[in-house]
Write a structure and sequence with these properties.
With 302 residues, the protein is of the alpha+beta class. It has helices at 75-80, 118-124, 135-145, 156-159, 203-208, 229-240, 281-284; strands spanning 5-17, 30-41, 48-50, 66-68, 91-93, 114-117, 151-154, 162-165, 168-172, 181-186, 192-197, 245-248, 254-257, 260-265, 268-269, 273-275. The protein has a single domain (5-284), classed as Ribonuclease Z/Hydroxyacylglutathione hydrolase-like (Metallo-beta-lactamase, Chain A), CATH 3.60.15. The strands form 2 sheets. Strands 1, 2, 3, 4, 5, 6, 7 and 15 form an 8-stranded mixed sheet that branches. Strands 8-9-10-11-12-13-14-16 form an 8-stranded mixed sheet. The longest helix is centred in the last third of the chain and has 12 residues, at 229-240.
Length: 302
Amino acid sequence: MPAHEIKLLPLIEIELESSFLVLARNMGIRTRVPTWGVLILGSPAGPILVDTGVRDAEIMERLHMTGYVGEGQGLDAALAEHGLERGDIHAVLHTHTHIDHAGQDANFPLSTPVVMTRRELEYSASGLMGEQYPAEYVKHHIDRLHTPGAMRLLDLDLSGPDEIYPGIVCELAGGHTEGSMNVIVELADGEKACICGDVLYDIHNQVVDPMLQVLDFEPATTGNHGTTKRQEKAAIKKALNSGDYVIPIHDFPARVSSGRVLSRLEHSVPGPEHPVEHRTTRETGEMGLGRGEPVLPLAATA
């Protein structure tokens, strides 16, 4: 089985209202978060990319957010840091296809397959989340749908987990959007990493010091999802128990075990780790208020 390595590609930083990230936290206060593409190296098939970021910084204004692309950011610059170009990417996988996750798909050749769940394609065209699915993205995916080899659709809600490449398994996330999926990647020494998209936005204030939670090991939900609160909480717990690492798209990764965050990482998995003191109500006797300080620069804790 291949032993993969994962690199985070800095695509854009987004300034948005804080309670979008963690429900009821710092309402009315804007904060800035990273948006990653996730590069999977070590597959015999070739480099694989999870999520492609935004079409351009300006498109975020449709959601009353502000995008910033600095030096070294953006897909082409980030790939170049690893000696790669778009044409070197074997396939594009999508945790989901929101405005900040699928904006560069149209700039990949149609010979590069885009992989998502069939439910996500249906959901994107439903209108239920409005401009979070821009018309340009949806129309491009429909073009791919009718071009041989340009798209691969997974029926994870019916099939269960699907190993689409050796050591790379896609499973239904169960939260954020109806078609969101987790990408589980086999690493060295039998460890696994779960790329969980936006099921988690803010590991510290959703899991380590969960906002306004009384129950033990009860995560806080985001302020942006298309499923029920129960489904969101279950999806977070699922992601935390789907591997040895969890990798959100808008926060830094974490090493996890039995639902507990052990440490935080920076731009690669595996990589240097920063230990974290996990917080539960059983240990403190207090309700989580999301008072924690950032663990790493640009983590979604402002």
